[in-house]
Batch of 4 targets.
Target 1
Amino acid sequence: MILCTPTQMHADQAIKAMNAGKHVEVEIPLSDSWPDAQAVMAKQAETGLVCMVGHTRRFNPSHQFVHNRIKAGEFNIQQMDVQTYFFRRSNM
């Protein structure tokens, strides 16, 4: 199960999904509070299911630009492949 819902729903939904026996990928952030994040981690340890947090680009300005054009009917997208490269000038 992939959770791409508002942040405040992530922890509760992840726990419910694992209670239902589902592996879960949660869009970052995992939760909006440390106790909720710990509860998700405890549920994962209890169930042994995969519960991972992934990085999405929904707040990236370039992605919002495309999304807004699609919603406005200006773009008719049938398939879109996106690759992002991160270059660091120093090792952090």
Target 2
Amino acid sequence: MQGNDSKGAVKKTISLHQGSGLILVIDDEEGMRKLAYETLTKSGYQVLLASNGDEALILYKLNAER
């Protein structure tokens, strides 16, 4: 979907896929983790964040039943 703002520029509106479930995001860059978190939560997912493999293993073990 497109719309015009007051300056005549065209803006595109996209719709994100809506899902459910739990996703474990592992990235050593905080900005990438934040971006993934915001995008995935807006799409309906629950998100766990880890900055390294050790953190990821702990989170996985604590949340394996989910």
Target 3
Amino acid sequence: MLTDKFFTIAQIGHDATLWILIILSIFSLAFIIERWVTLNKLSNQSKNVNKRIGQALLTNDLSDIETLNKDSLEGEAIACGLAHIKNHGSAGLPEIFETYTLNKKPFLEKYLNFLATVGSNAPFIGLLGTVFGIMDAFKEMAVSQGDASAVMIGISKALIATAFGLVVAIPAVVAYNHFQRKVKTLLQSVRSAGNICMSYSKNRSTGA
């Protein structure tokens, strides 16, 4: 019967969901570490560049942006802008920075969709494992002629899947939200650098 096939699936389903959650947790942890290192490095570079931009604004000497660190997102964006100004003038400069921002966004958001998917689906995978475990526990109770201790042990084991699903999901959700804020801040910083570059272009064209 079809019901018997479901019980057969339940026997292996609980362990299978646990292995799936273990694999997801390993990938999730690896991606969290990679994004933490990458985005923190870019954020530190951004702070240094923004500090220099702030000093240039205070001294009203925008020519200082020509010597910004090109390893930073802002410095690289401004370098692209300055090259465009040199070859084509200020026409189309806003589009250059918008294109640069759109081009960098996938790199900054790398692995974030995976973390979001794990965060939203790991609890359901754990719940599925718990359902499989409870099905198997009640089947074992029927075979053991009503031994309550057998079903209690089975249910307690089944609940491990739900707990593990939450353990995998919570760090993924927290990391996703944290990294999204960092990405938003970095992209906003690039747009600000673009505005500075456009101001520099206008001052240069007017001879100010």
Target 4
Amino acid sequence: PEAAGSVEEAFGHLRELDLIPQPNAGDGVLPPDLLLRELGRGLEPDVVFLVPDAAGEFRMAAACVCFPSSWGLEEKIGRPLTEIHGPVPTLNAELGGAISQFLHRMAPGLAWCRENWGLSACAELNHHPSRVLPRLESTVDLAGVWLRVERQALVALPKSGGVLFAIRVEVFPLTDVIADQSARLGLRRALETMPEDVAGYKGLTAARKRMVEL
């Protein structure tokens, strides 16, 4: 319920831009939960709504997530960002306060974009933990590795005070990626210099040494 205003604002804005189809609501207006479902159907990226609570701390208040990267929405929904980011090494210590300030100060009409990457032992888009997908092991072969890229966008919702967080996942065979010399050298450098806790978080501890050699 805390995200109702943000969902309605985002839906109205996207309809004005003709980025999602007009839902069939009969003679009435769809409630926010059904608008969220229509957003999930009409947009390629997964959508998450961040809404500040009474203390000003942003919480994951609503979402439609089809392709999570090894996390479950049912465990994150309703929680503040500091808890959601808890498993990410050093993030809260280094940027926790800055992230909250950034979200509060975002100017409307702009999309702030970033990319997050990982390596996977399968090409599946849906990496919900319940699926128990294969993991990268010390005997890894490059033909069995995929580069998983999350293209993320943050958009302020000025009327409701919330933030729309969109996540679009792309998966590329690693053999295609490393055919480019700069990509190959950059990935090797990243694997060589990655702190142990970050490698563990990304599921690369067992495979990292072998991948650098390959």
